[in-house]
Design goal:
about 25% helix, protease, Peptidase_S8_Ser-AS, alpha/beta
Length: about 500
C-alpha cells in the first residue's frame, strides 16, 4: 500500500491552522489586565513592538514538569481512517522545487534529533520516532499518540523515509533524522485550568504558553538539536490605543527559547501563523508600518532565537493565509502538502476535511518543517556550526525578495534554497569579515549639449543656394522669353 487519502473527521486543530494549535489567542492574564497608564494619568502610547523587550536579569528557566496543567478529557473523537485507500505516488511540488534527489547526495540528516512540539506523533512505519513527553495526558504513550493528526503530518515532512525500493515519490527532507515527539497541545482534549485567580474557569483546549515553554526545555534537555514548533499564539499589541503588558507566561517562553538556543545550542523553528484560524488574527493584521505590528505572534516574535517561516504557494507567490510581521525570517512551501497519514502505519495523506469538505492540506504549520528538516541536514553535514550559524546560513542563501535589504514582512529573506544552504561557502564561518560599505560616488559625464549652429548654417546656406538657383532660373527664363518676343516682331 503506497498511500491513503483521509476523508476523516478532523479536530479544530488539524490542517491549515498553525495558529489554531491549541494556544490561546490572548493569554488570560492579558485579557484581564487593566489598561496601563502613565504617571500623569494619560494612556501610555503604543510603542514599537517589532522587537521584544529583554528579560529581567535572573529570570529563571521554566522547569519541565512533563505534566498537564489541567485534567484534560477527550471531548471530540479522534481522527479516523478514510477506509478507501488509493495510491499517492507523485512527489509534492515543494519536494521537486527543492531538489530532494540531489540534496540527499550531500546529507540526509543522520545523527540529528528533531523535536516536534505539537499534537503528538503517531508511530508510522516510515518514521523513526521516540516519545519525549506529554502535556495533554500522562497515560497515553508519552507523546506517541496523535488524536488531531497535525503533529504526525509535520513530522513526516521532516523525516519520512518510505522504502527505497517502493514507487512512493514522497520523502521527508531529512529522512535519516530522528523525531522526538512531545505532545503539547490538542483541540480535541479540553479541561479547566484552575488558578487562584480563577477558581471556576471555562473549559479550554489543551496547550498554553506555559506548557510550550516547558516543552522547549524538555526537548533541549533530551538532546534535540532542532526544534519545530508549528504552534502559535496571537494577541493584540494594544486595546483602544493602550499597550497590553508583557505577561509572565510570555517571559517564561522567552526564557525557554533563550535557554535552548544559547545554552543548549538548538536551532529553533516556528510557523509564522495563519489568517482565518483565530478571532484575533483575521485578514489584514500587521500590514501597516512594519515597525508597528498590531498583533504579536508567539513564538515567532522572539526572532533573536527563532526562525519564523512563512508559506509560499506553488506559483511562487506568498500564501494569502500567511501572517506577515517584522519577525518573519524565511519562507517555504505551504500548500498542496503530502505527508504521513496519522491513522495508518503505511499510508500517506494529501487532503483534510474542513467544514465537512475535503481540501488540500496547507498552512505555515507545514512550511516550518521544511526549514527544520533543512537545519537537520546542515547540522548533520556541518556539525561544527553553532545554532546561530545554521540560522544565518539559511537566511543568507535564501532567494531574497526585491525589497530594501533583501527582506520584507511577507516572506522575510525569501524562499529557502536548500542546496545553497547546504553547500555554499559562507565567509563569516571562516572568520572573514563582511565587506565594508563603500561611499561610491557616481562620477558620470555631464549631459551632452548638442551644438546646432553648424546644422543651422548648413541649412540656411543650402536654402540660400536653392533660392539663388531658383532666382537665376527665373531670370534666365524671363530673358529668353522676352528675346523670343522681340525676334517675332522684327520678322513681321
Amino acid at each position: 500500500m503506497t498511500g491513503r487519502r483521509t476523508g476523516r473527521r478532523l479536530g479544530a486543530l488539524l490542517g491549515a491552522a498553525a495558529i489554531a494549535a491549541a494556544l490561546p489567542a490572548v493569554p488570560a492574564a492579558a485579557q484581564q489586565a487593566p489598561a496601563t497608564s502613565a504617571p500623569s494619568g494619560k494612556p501610555t502610547p503604543v510603542e514599537a513592538m517589532a522587537v521584544p523587550p529583554p528579560l529581567e536579569p535572573g529570570w529563571p528557566v521554566p522547569r519541565a514538569t512533563n505534566q498537564p496543567d489541567a485534567a484534560y478529557e477527550l471531548k471530540t473523537p479522534c481522527i479516523a481512517p478514510a477506509g478507501q485507500p488509493f495510491d499517492l505516488k507523485n512527489k509534492p511540488w515543494g519536494q521537486n522545487q527543492m531538489q530532494f534527489d540531489d540534496l540527499h547526495k550531500f546529507s540526509r540528516g543522520a545523527g540529528v534529533t528533531v523535536a516536534v512540539i505539537d499534537t503528538g506523533v503517531a508511530p508510522h512505519d516510515y518514521l523513526t520516532v521516540r516519545g519525549g513527553g506529554d502535556y495533554v495526558r500522562t497515560d497515553e504513550q508519552n507523546g506517541l499518540k496523535d488524536c488531531d493528526g497535525h503533529g504526525t503530518e509535520v513530522a513526516g515532512i521532516i523525516a519520512a523515509h518510505p522504502p527505497e525500493n517502493s514507487d512512493i515519490g514522497f520523502v521527508g527532507i531529512a529522512p535519516d533524522a530522528e523525531i522526538l515527539s512531545i505532545r503539547q497541545s490538542s483541540a480535541n482534549y479540553k479541561g479547566k485550568r484552575i488558578t487562584p485567580d480563577n477558581p471556576d474557569p471555562q473549559e479550554d483546549k489543551a496547550g498554553t504558553l506555559e506548557t510550550l515553554a516547558q516543552s522547549i526545555v524538555a526537548a533541549a534537555d533530551q538532546g534535540a538539536k532542532v526544534i519545530n514548533m508549528s504552534v502559535d499564539s496571537c494577541r493584540q499589541v494594544a486595546i483602544n490605543g493602550v499597550k497590553l503588558p508583557i505577561q509572565a507566561s510570555e517571559k517564561n517562553l522567552q526564557a525557554a527559547l533563550r535557554y535552548a538556543h544559547d545554552t543548549k545550542d538548538v536551532v529553533l523553528v516556528a510557523s509564522a501563523g495563519n489568517y482565518g484560524t483565530d478571532t484575533a488574527c483575521t485578514q489584514g493584521i500587521n500590514t501597516g508600518d512594519p515597525s508597528q505590528p498590531s498583533h504579536l505572534i508567539l513564538p515567532p516574535w522572539f526572532s533573536e532565537y527563532v526562525i519564523s517561516v512563512a508559506a509560499i504557494q506553488d506559483n511562487g507567490d506568498p500564501a494569502d493565509f500567511s501572517i506577515p510581521g517584522p519577525w518573519v525570517t524565511v519562507a517555504a512551501p505551504g500548500t498542496r502538502i503530502i505527508s504521513l497519514d496519522p491513522t495508518t502505519r503505511t499510508g500517506l495523506v494529501n487532503l483534510q476535511i474542513v467544514d465537512g469538505k475535503p481540501q488540500p492540506i496547507q498552512g505555515t504549520s507545514f512550511a516550518a518543517p521544511y526549514v527544520a528538516g533543512l537545519a537537520a541536514l546542515i547540522r548533520s553535514a556541518k556539525p561544527e556550526l553553532k545554532a546561530a550559524q545554521v540560522a544565518e546560513r539559511i537566511k543568507t542563501t535564501a532567494i531574497h525578495p526585491a525589497a530594501p535589504g533583501g527582506r520584507d514582512n511577507r516572506i522575510g529573506y525569501g524562499m529557502i534554497n536548500p542546496m545553497a544552504a547546504l553547500t555554499a561557502v559562507i565567509p563569516s564561518e571562516r572568520g572573514v569579515r563582511p565587506d565594508a560599505a563603500l561611499d561610491m560616488k557616481a562620477d558620470l559625464p555631464g549631459p551632452v549639449v548638442h551644438n546646432w549652429l553648424p546644422m543651422q548654417v548648413a541649412v540656411v546656406g543650402s536654402a540660400g543656394g536653392v533660392l539663388l538657383l531658383l532666382l537665376t532660373l527665373f531670370i534666365v527664363h524671363t530673358v529668353r522669353r522676352n528675346k523670343g518676343r522681340r525676334e517675332v516682331r522684327g520678322s513681321a
